[in-house]
Amino acid sequence: MAAEYILSLADSRATLALAGGKGASLARLSQAGLPVLDGFHITTAAYLDFVAENRLQERTLALASVAALALVDPAHYATLEAAACAIQDLFQQAAMPVAIEAAIVLAYTGLPGEVPRVAVRSSATAEDLPGLSFAGQQETYLNVHGIPSVLESVKSCWASLWTARAIAYRAQHGIRPEDLSLAVVVQRLVRAGASGVMFTANPANGRRDQVMITAAWGLGEAIVGGLVTPDTLTVNKATGQVIERQTARKEVETVLLESGTGTREQPLPENLRDKAVLSDQEAATLAGLGVRIETLFGGVPMDIEWTLADGEFAIVQARPVTALPPNSGDEPEEQVEPPLEWKRPDPRGVYGRGSITEQLPEPLTPLFSSLGGPIIDQETRRIYAEYMGVKEWKGPIFDTINDYAYLNMNFSQWTMFRMVLSSLLIAQKMLSGAGPRYRAARQHYIEVVQRYQARPLADYRAAGLLEGARQLTRQAISLYTVLQTSVIPGASTSEIMFTQTYNHLIKKAGDPQAPVFLMGFVSTPIRAEQALYDLAEWAKAQGGLAAHLAATPAAQLASELDRPAPLPPQGGVELETWSEWRRRFVEHLVAYGHSTYDMDFSRAVAADDPAPLLETCRMYLLGKAGSPYDRLQTLAGRREQATQALLKRLRGLKRWIFLKQLRGAQKNAPLREDGLSDLGLGYPQLRRMLRELGSRLARAGMFGQADDVFWLVEQELERAAAALDQGQPVESMLETIRQRKIVWKAEQRLVAPLVLPPGSKLLGIDVEKLSAARASDDVNVIKGFGASQGKVTATARVLLGPQDFSLMQPGDVLVAPITTPAWTPLFAVASAIVTDIGGPLSHSSIVAREYGLPAVLGTGVATRRIRSGQRITVDGDAGSVTLEAE
């Protein structure tokens, strides 16, 4: 019976229903490795059996109803108090059932110490629900020690479910008393030297990039009771830097009673009254814990109670912040409605989002649109002329509509005939030379990058920085066009041919699906994942370093890479070990940090912002993601077993056809992933050059920060660079950039149509009918391509880019606009994949199958329709995503 009544603090069964809001939160924190003091849960089963055996339910509900009625008229508040007191008496006089008492005694005596001092905290099932705080509605008892005191405190906690203030609060919020139960958390108590409260968003101004900490000496009851004005610190969430500090004069502190239970207030020594409670380093460490907790709870701003004892922080409680003012930070305060019309630049044009535009899922920033757009246009024209014999073209091929990238494919019937005929005639030449053409283009790209890397940025004139960015952009887009005319069609065609041949000529009942034969091969994204796993395994063996990496938010770790030592407290990290860690991680970034999340060069790659990779490294370090080597070996074993089983059966022509098609598909599939991973080879240097130019213009007063350079159009940047080189002043663009950001934010909320005008045909094909993003009869069902088989029901995590990667939790469904090779590390912890863009032969499809994850791609609307934290069912066989009713 004890197992029913008692759970260890970190037990995964400690849900809201069994452990209450506070208990479930502490269990989640403890499971994630956050500093939570030892203890145990007394589950709601104990409360319910206590109430049942003492026949309290009927009498309690009757008195609660009387109390609730008294709320209608404030003059009858005494009736509420009287009813609540009567319920308290019922609980205190009731006998503790023997089985429950035995379970509590066994758990309590199992804590360290001869007579452990503990905190006994109420944890209600209606506590800390979304939009409701319940702070202070139930009781907490501190400094409880000895079996009789523990048992009495547990009963008092149960009774506190029915205090006057708790009954009133629930009645005001429409919570039915018959649905209630209460758990209790018993935790080891330490003599805190300092305590306080932390908000992971600034409650004064709503800024989500700041942490606010209040701190006082002793236990936190002095703050909660208003007996002391605490110190207040505002900390930069990303860097851990203290932005503002207000050190108050503190007259008293709350301490534990030496004998008996409870606490008392005592005067502070004079030398502590005006002294800051936390150092900058301690504030940074505490803020780092806050960021980890916020991330653990899906990015929701959190209200966290903490203590500090003997130099170690402990988290007492964490709950969502229920009310914050609007964010007054750097984000534009103004909002505009997104445009309603998708106006075509050429009224006769037929515009589609395919080919390279799939690598541009978001609205384009002004600089990429004006600088990269013409290059895409030129490279697309070159492909049409070289491979399809189409040299005449009226108007731009590449254009933007509401800042989304589109290609104008308004071909005449004669042009379409020539294109199809030409592509058939040169198809064999294109496909047979795919590998050599890609490798030659890649080598040329690398040489151009190295040429620009060989010269310090400071030696470039402003115009030279812009020209370097232009040339590197051209190389990236040129490499994509080579892939588009060699590797990508080669991989797609060979996979389609193998699948069709296998399904119609070879496959029999009981044989595996075709993708099994194409899994378990090494490509650049897989090598990158293995290298990151190796790095985590090395760090795991470095004691103090492993502890520091596990306990520190990824954003802080990223900022520490530039430091000769980690931010204190270092947790025993030796400087030699730290230097070796930095060297190894930087080597990883040099090798793999160029993969793009989006071909718009305004988006940082891992070489610029390694926080997403560091978060994945921490996942490996904490054992939350499996070994990529084991996974690859398992898939390769299944592939070889399936292949050998078929070869034993096949003879003659069928065997020859099977092997020929299989070898072609197996050869080309990894090459496609290698090529897509190489698109960003020049992006680290490209972004360095543009941001260097941006820094110079920011210093000249053109705008506020280096990254504002991406919000200029190319012609504006050319004029500004020329002015810098000539020593002339530049015009301020602050207001113009602010307005552009506001419009871009509005456009980001749009769902870009696949083809314009709707219903148009591209190359004679009705794209919308072929599209996965088709309407469903059920409003709770989203349709897409079933790209990887299987069915999973789990929590959705909507990630719009690498800035959201830290929100991902093991077992979440990854919901994204598109995934590129740079997203691959998240597949190690995901349970399924859903995207707006992509098809059965896209990167998302290939990697999802490698990881054995159900995938539904090309939904068109997933990131807009699905809410982070929502339960969804991903059916890779049916190509559907079902949203659970909320």
Describe this structure in words.
- With 886 residues, the chain is of the alpha+beta class.
- Among the domains are: 2-188, Dna Ligase, domain 1 (2-Layer Sandwich), CATH 3.30.1490; 194-320, ATP-grasp fold, B domain (D-amino Acid Aminotransferase, Chain A, domain 1), CATH 3.30.470.20; 519-649, no CATH class; 771-883, 3-Layer(bba) Sandwich (Glucose Oxidase, domain 1).
- The protein has 30 helices and 27 strands.
- Strands 20-27-26-22-23-24-25-21 form an eight-stranded mixed β-sheet.
- The longest helix is centred in the last third of the chain and has 26 residues, at 652-677.
- Residues 69-77 and 127-137 have low confidence and may be disordered.
Roughly what percent helix? 40-55%
Question: What gyration radius follows from the Cα positions, in whole Å?
Answer: 31 Å
Low-confidence stretches: 69-77, 127-137
- Biggest sheet: strand arrangement: 20-27-26-22-23-24-25-21
Please state the structural category.
alpha+beta
Largest sheet: 8 strands, mixed
CATH architectural designation of the domain at 2-188: 2-Layer Sandwich
> How many DSSP-defined strands?
27
User: What is the third-level CATH name, the topology of the domain at 2-188?
Assistant: Dna Ligase, domain 1
What is the straight-line distance between the termini? Answer: 35 Å
Number of helices: 30
CATH class (first level) name of the domain at 2-188:
Alpha Beta
Shape: globular
CATH superfamily of the domain at 2-188: ATP-grasp fold, A domain
Tell me what portion of residues adopts beta-strand conformation.
5-15%
What is the mean pLDDT?
A: 83
